[in-house]
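Predict the 3D structure for this chain.
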Amino acid sequence: MFRTILKFVAVLTFVSMMGAVSSAQQNTPGSDHKISTGTAVPTAQPAATVVSPTTPADNGAAAADAAKPLKAMPVTLRELSPWSMFLSADLLVKAVMIGLAFASLVTWTIFIAKMFELSLVRRRLRAALSKIADSRSLAEAQFALGASGTVLSSLLAAAMREARLSAGISSDAGVKERAASSFSEIVRAEARRIRLGMGLLATIGATSPFVGLFGTVWGIMNSFIGISKSQTTNLAVVAPGIAEALLATAFGLVAAIPAVIIYNHFARVTKGYLELVGRSQGAAGRLLSRDLDRTHVGSPRAANSRAAE
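Done. Predicted structure below.
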């Protein structure tokens, strides 16, 4: 029984090996299937892949048909560096990027200029206030300052002019009121001057993200138009256009974020400088009040009042 089973297994193994050999020979194009008996049998080929060796025109048509899918989805490798994306972007997207780059340049120019200006005027005004701290009159304060060119010099000059124009007027309240009006005009003019450029920073910080977003929307719209024309959703085809569009948003953020930070910084610094200007206004008003009191003390009217007492 065991020998019978072994013989049966050997026969099955032999038949399976012969079947594998015959299938391998059938898969070889142009070959003939040979059986161990020596009889040659023509190789059976699928009807869809039979190509006659005597028809070269049919071979050319088949090659053209095989090449069609490759032409439908051309994939070219593109460098995705920021400079290459800028050069490959749409004309409108390029204009948006250039405008945002110019806005960023303006932001840093204002930052450098205002930093030097604010540091200089604050240092000079503090020095001027320290010089007149012990002055007893407007004339003495002007002599101590000299040609400093600060807002304190303008306030002292306005007080001296009002005192000269109001000579002979006995009402001190009227003189102080008119002097205070002149002081307010000088302080407002100084505030406008020191805030010059900050409005532009606020505009850049508020509008740059939206300008960049406009360039991104325009670039993505062009990318979708290119997808419809190429009739493919291959990421390698559509990714460069989308990356170029997103670069406009990056430009907008690069312009907006420093502008907002610099604006907030200068708002704090300007507020501190205007507090110094307010101190200067108070110092000029006190010196004017002292001069008015001295004038009344030395006047004949004051002498008569002391004699009556």
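The first strand starts at residue 33 and ends at 34.
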